[in-house]
Amino acid sequence: MFAELASFALVAGLLTITPGLDTALVLRTAVAVGPRGAMATALGINTGALCWGVAASVGATAVLAASDAAYLVLRIAGAGYLLWLGLGMLWRSRPGRGPDGAGAPAPAEPPPEADPMPEADPAAGGDSLVRLWWRGTATNLLNPKFGVFYMAMLPQFIPDGAPQLLTGIVLTLVHDLEGLVWFGLLVLGVRRLRERLAHPAVRRAMDAITGTALVLVGVDVALSERPV
Q: Where is this protein found (predicted)?
């Protein structure tokens, strides 16, 4: 079991640090909202991964490979959500838009005495931590390709005779722990560069990059075929 766990940790670790949609979403949230919001998004991403891990462990994800209707429903829902989220970010990234999406441009530089990259205040109309957590969760949960990946990977690392569900959950939690460490390092790096990243142009660029990534993944999901 230890050998399987170590092997899975290595594979999952390499997957975690590979730049992708999850990384872009956490970085964008760290720039636009702040460290707490970014970690809430990271926890949501890990929640989605845990749900897929549990589903794969009990064999529920096999339905995606066996049922045209189930895969089609999830594919349409996932593609629609990713496209909606990505297009919204692209809309906010237009020149002349403030960091909150308002039409009036934000000041080029914050006052010297102000925090150059303050945390967004949910009470002031920003994204709440719960909403950011759900955004991360839904991004993974509504992506059928993520589910198919877990279905294909987890069984290979569950030893014969081991409890299927318990072992699958342990492996998924290892992946989640690696993700939290990686995302924490990314957020810390953003925190150290907060003065440069606080400029509205940088925030719009992050929205444009992340929005484009979401749209491309959404289109890919929409056009994907059920795995054989």
A: Cell membrane
